[in-house]
UniProtKB/TrEMBL annotation:
Transmembrane stretches, start-end: none
Location of the Dienelactone hydrolase domain: 32-250
Entry GO MF terms: hydrolase activity
InterPro entries registered for this protein in UniProt: AB_hydrolase_fold, Dienelactn_hydro
Pfam families named in the record: DLH
UniProt keyword Metal-binding, yes or no: no
Protein name: Dienelactone hydrolase
Species per Swiss-Prot/TrEMBL record: Triangularia verruculosa
Coiled coil feature spans: none
Keywords: Hydrolase
Length: 254
């Protein structure tokens, strides 16, 4: 793998403050989603972003991030890829993460690629057919990173991921457009050896790529980091600017 499977660290973090401005919608009349629209005067016509979240799914933090992308001119669709079975923040007690991934909380709702891929495909279709998106970027946090890499073949043109998990080497090698990574200094899911291997793979793709490493932060910082910690707040803000700048240069100007 180019990054390790998700683990308990993927559920730990801090809920952020702020008022969300988007709207809850359904995609394909069945998938929960959150749509953040840009102000008319800033909107990039025909350009959109698919946001594939970490295992906490659609919640305040991920909605606020979608709103931030919209504030920068990007129509943003945040999709529930867990079929209503996202995890709670800072859950306590013993938890079998791999059982949840393979079977879901009730044993009948898996979160494998066979289950998630069709949801991502429906979201891409909705952005293109219902919202007029012609230039499509995608953002993936932790769990979501895998599905950014997997779906260039289905219409994603430019990708950005932060503290990725569960990305297979062949998935990363198959990307067909620019790919940017924001990485944490301390991250058992995406440690130094995985970063270096990812760099080797990305070099061979011939696509534009970027790997930014943020010191003093851990896995999850870009979504669930504590803004009261100076290093974490700085890294979170810079990682978001990394994403916007990446899309401004490789999506808008393509």
């Amino acid at each position: 793998m180019a990054s390790n499977p998700p683990a308990k660290c993927c559920t730990i973090g801090v809920k952020h403050e702020g008022e969300t401005t988007g709207q809850s919608i359904k995609v394909a009349n069945k998938h929960d989603a959150y749509l953040a629209r840009p102000p008319a005067e800033k909107a990039h016509k025909g350009v959109g972003i698919l946001l594939i979240p970490d295992v906490i799914g659609i919640w305040d933090n991920s909605k606020l991030i979608a709103d931030q992308f919209a504030a920068n001119g990007y129509l943003t669709l945040l999709i529930d890829v867990f079929n209503g079975d996202a995890l709670s923040l800072n859950r306590t007690g013993d938890f079998d993460f791999m059982a949840w991934l393979t079977k879901g909380s009730d044993g009948k709702n898996p979160h494998t690629k066979e289950a998630v891929d069709p949801i991502v495909e429906d979201a891409i279709k909705a952005l293109k057919e219902e919202y007029g998106v012609e230039k499509l970027g995608a953002v993936g946090y932790c769990f979501g990173a895998k599905y950014v890499a997997r779906h260039y073949k289905n219409g994603i043109q430019v990708g950005y991921v932060a503290h990725p998990s569960f990305v297979d080497e062949d998935e990363l090698a198959a990307i067909e457009g620019p790919f940017s990574i924001a990485a944490a200094e301390t991250d058992s899911i995406f440690p130094a050896e995985k970063r270096h291997k990812s760099e080797e793979i990305l070099q061979k793709t011939g696509q534009p790529y970027q790997i930014n490493l943020y010191s003093g932060v851990e896995h999850g910082f870009a979504v669930r980091g504590d803004p009261n910690k100076k290093a974490t707040r700085y890294a979170k803000e810079q990682a978001f600017l990394q994403a916007v700048t990446w899309f401004d240069n490789y999506l808008l100007l393509m």
